[in-house]
Amino acid sequence: NAGVMQNPRHLVRRRGQEARLRCSPMKGHSHVYWYRQLPEEGLKFMVYLQKENIIDESGMPKERFSAEFPKEGPSILRIQQVVRGDSAAYFCASSPPRREAHNEQFFGPGTRLTVL
Amino acid sequence: AQSVTQPDIHITVSEGASLELRCNYSYGATPYLFWYVQSPGQGLQLLLKYFSGDTLVQGIKGFEAEFKRSQSSFNLRKPSVHWSDAAEYFCAVGASNFGNEKLTFGTGTRLTIIP
After folding, report:
1. Spatial contact of B23 and B91, defined as CB atoms under 8 Å apart
2. C-beta atoms of A104 and B102 within 8 A
3. Phi-psi bin for A99: left (phi > 0), alpha (psi -120 to 50), beta?
4. Are residues B103 and A56, on separate chains, in Cβ contact within 8 Å?
5. What Å distances lie between residue B19 and A101, B76, B85, B109, B112, CA to CA?
6. Which of A85, A108, B34, B68 is deepest in the core (most CB within 10 A)?
7. Among candidates A2, A89, A6, which has minimal Cα distance to A41?
8. 3-class secondary-structure state, position A7
9. Environment class of residue B72 by beta-carbon count within 10 Å: exposed (0-12), middle (13-18) or buried (19+)?
10. Per residue in B69-113, pLDDT tens?
């Protein structure tokens, strides 16, 4: 059973470009979470999605960031007009339905975004 | 809102020595508690978790943790560390109420092992 997959693993963008980060959850998992880890810091929650629905986006910056989890295909975290402060590791996690999971989340290897 | 404090930013121990990493949480009800380990440049691996029941939980790689409600703590322990345990360790808390599924992480403790 493959784990959570993220691609690309490393992404370099120049200021003003767009970054698209992809996450494929574990098989059978319908819940996806995105977290951001700034250098020397812990992970900070960004957004929680189920198929075709954003459930909690309380950690998302108000501008330039968006996320989706379509009916088919991976979840996408999109950052428009990137700035140097967006440089970070972005982790995706997935979980089965709540009553089975007790919030246990399985993490992918992360995408390390560098903005030049 | 829940929060987690890991008071030790960096800990150094000798190989074979015992280890305790501290974690304090803040949450109004019974929390879900987790310890994750992150090796450099890698993702997070779950070491152990607490949902309910026995307050001493066993995890992978010889780690254990004890939930102490009176102290709002969930400290991670290992009786004898190995050089391969060198990594960053994160404590996390999840809410037990529906509609709040996010995990809140501490800032991490970096563990260095010396020969």
Report:
1. yes
2. no
3. alpha
4. no
5. 29, 8, 10, 12, 11
6. B34
7. A89
8. strand
9. middle
10. 999 999 999 999 999 999 999 999 987 666 567 899 999 999 999
